[in-house]
Amino acid sequence: MAVDLPILIARCKAGDELAWEAFVRQFQGRVYSLAGSYARSSDDARDMAQEIFVRLYEKRRAWPEADTFVPWMIRTARNLCIDLIRKAQVRPSAAESSEDDLARLTATAASPEDAFHLGTRKALLWRAVRRLSALNREIVVLKEIQGLSLEEVASLLKVPVGTVKSRSNRARLELAEKVLELSGRGAQPHAGGPGGA
Amino acid sequence: MDCRAFIDCLADIAAGSCPTASRNEALNHAAGCNSCAGLLRAWQAEEEPGGDFEQDEFTRSILARTSGAAACDAARDRLPDYVDATAGAIDTELVAGHLARCASCRTIAETLFELSAELPSLAEIDPGPGFAAAVTHATTGAAARRESIGARLDAWWGRLLERPRIGFELAYAGTLLLVLAFGNPAATLQAASSKTYALAETGLSQARAALPSIVPSIENRAASQRSRIEKIRAFSDAVSQRRLGFEQRLLAAWQQAWTGFVSTVSEVQRLAGTVRDSVAGWWANVTMSRGANEPAGQSGRYTRQERASGAEQTARRDTSAK
């Protein structure tokens, strides 16, 4: 059961270690997912997520209030991921990405059959996300997956809001085409306009 | 029912095989959701029995000769807003009409609907058991912190060894060790430069020692050169003097000749004046003697014709007198 975020943040800022443990449990999935979108493998994602939590713990006295906490946390996590990638030279590429690791980790459904199908589908989505260009991938991860607003994504990426909006639309279209391509349904470029049905 | 569930039973609704309860629930959802309503219309239009074939062919042929596939590009540009139900009413209608006839754009639209439902589910991934414990262990407690630092150092060393530049860095470190152990190979070059400097110093001091014996001969040669220069200068002065005297004489002769010419001209002018005065006096005498014998003109003076006629009369008188 999730603890109310303002209370959790206040307890953590006050140095309550139990509240910190609850915070980790509450946000580990989100942080791990964000790290996974930058990391090359599940091990890298795990290390990066742990580094993000260590950094959050060190800065817990300076955490913002609850209404701006999640965007701030995502910003901090994203910047740290980029720093770690830059330092450790573990920049992901489509060829090196290990979607199977993510598929294994994303299989959280109840039954083995559901886990298999859900894992396969999520792995396909991750694979499609990783095949996007760098900026499109970040926009999809931050806006569509992490749920940040256009303004928050624009502030984070230091680009105009209009650019984020247009790039987001293009990124979603590109992602849809890649999903179709990977799922074998194949994106048909154009069927010659209406009447092609 | 949400959009995801609506999409799942969309094919059954269009085919008429959806249970009544689910169908009603889906239709209620579509009534409040523009995007799903458009998608439903597109599916229903596709499932309708033929009859539009000729019209479709006609439309396609016109579009192929006019805008081509531009309609698909325009529709796909607006699909995200259509799926998010943020497009305007007219755009929603236009996109729905396009989707009803364009299978490829409809496939993209369906995938976008699916992604809208699925992508948020990727926001959280379970990192597996023990992750939270590992994080709290790494962040709380001094012993755990030391262990974490050790683990981080191990990880850092492991990553360091994986770096492509590690070969260059090891080569650099090895070179430094060799220099420290066996000395600097550039020291030989430094010794060579010191020897060269000493040789240059020796040569210079020898030249300084030989200088006193060379100086007198140089001075003698300089004195002889000076005397030659003096002679040349004296000759040059003499030539200049001669040239100056010639110029002065030439100038004096010219001045003398000019003075003579001017005096000659003055004398000629004086003689001409004398002749002119004599002629004028003679002519005055002639006119005075004629004025006494012949009447003058009205003006009291003779004109040229009168003088001519007077001369003719004088000549005739002289002839008759003879």
Describe the fold and architecture.
- The complex is a heterodimer of chains A (197) and B (322).
- Chain A has 197 residues and is mostly helical.
- In chain A, 70% of the residues lie in helices and 0% in strands.
- In chain A, helix 2 (17-38) crosses helix 3 (42-58).
- Chain A is globular, with a radius of gyration of 19 Å.
- Chain A starts with a helix and ends in a 15-residue tail after the last helix.
- The model of chain A is unreliable at 90-98, 104-112 and 191-197 (pLDDT under 50).
- With 322 residues, chain B is mainly alpha-helical.
- Chain B contains 13 helices and no strands.
- Chain B has helices at residues 3-8, 10-15, 20-32, 34-47, 53-65, 70-83, 89-101, 103-118, 131-139, 142-162, 166-182, 187-293, 304-321.
- Chain B is elongated.
- The termini of chain B are far apart.
- Chains A and B meet through helix 2, helix 3, helix 5, helix 6 and helix 7 of A and helix 5, helix 6, helix 7, helix 8 and helix 9 of B.
Notable traits:
heterodimer; A: 197 residues; mainly alpha; 9 helices; 70% helix; disordered C terminus; B: 322 residues; 13 helices
Query: Which residue ranges of chain B are poorly predicted, with pLDDT under 50 across at least 5 consecutive positions?
Result: none
Largest sheet of chain B: none
Q: Count of helical segments of chain B? A: 13
Order of helices and strands of chain B: HHHHHHHHHHHHH
